[in-house]
TrEMBL record:
Domain of life: Bacteria
InterPro entries: Membrane_assoc_protease (IPR052165), NA-bd_OB-fold (IPR012340), NfeD-like_C (IPR002810)
Protein name: NfeD-like C-terminal domain-containing protein
Compartment(s) of residence: Membrane
Gene3D superfamilies documented for this protein: Nucleic acid-binding proteins (2.40.50.140)
Membrane-traversing stretches: 12-28, 57-76
Membrane topology: Multi-pass membrane protein
Pfam families: NfeD
Statement: the UniProt record of this protein carries the keyword Cell membrane: no
Length: 155
């Protein structure tokens, strides 16, 4: 009852206040969702400016149209601005460990008790695998965090 009275007293501007609050909340809460609901409130506010004195423009109709527009705008926003980006030509960008899987290298140090390290390019990487002497050719089988799992190449 209080909200109905407030909306009646503020008139069409109540929708614009709601829209402003939703758009401001979008800045704080990322996710590109509240913007569509805020735009629906802006549209209802603009239509309310034109139709406020019309007999059929009751608050119930405004709420129904607001809900419908919110859904429509959210679906359109998701369709045209959603996360359906094209596949990257650099799938391992910022995932250096994953980009090393499949590479081969020579151990500069032996692997003792299943642990060691290997030098790839300009970086020393911790490795797990069976005990192997220095000089063994290995292939990187997987990466977990910063640790690589290796296997001997000639087996």
């Amino acid at each position: 009852m209080m909200l109905q009275r407030l909306a009646t007293e503020l008139g069409p501007w109540s929708w614009w206040i709601v829209a402003f609050m939703l758009l401001a909340a979008e800045l704080i809460a990322p996710g590109v969702f509240l913007i569509w609901i805020g735009l629906a409130a802006l549209v209802i506010g603009a239509v309310s400016l034109l139709l406020w004195d019309a007999v059929f423009w009751a608050w119930q109709l405004q709420l129904v149209l607001f809900a419908a527009l919110s859904v429509v705008f959210a679906l359109l926003g998701r369709k045209y601005f959603g996360r359906n980006r094209a596949a990257s030509d650099e799938p391992f960008l910022n995932q250096r460990e994953a980009s090393l899987v499949g590479r081969t290298a020579t151990l500069q140090e032996p692997i003792v008790e299943g642990r060691g390290r290997i030098r790839l390019d300009d970086t020393w990487w911790p490795v797990n695998g069976e005990d192997l002497p220095a000089g063994t050719r290995v292939r990187i089988a997987s990466a977990r965090g910063r640790t690589l799992t290796i296997e001997p190449l000639n087996r």
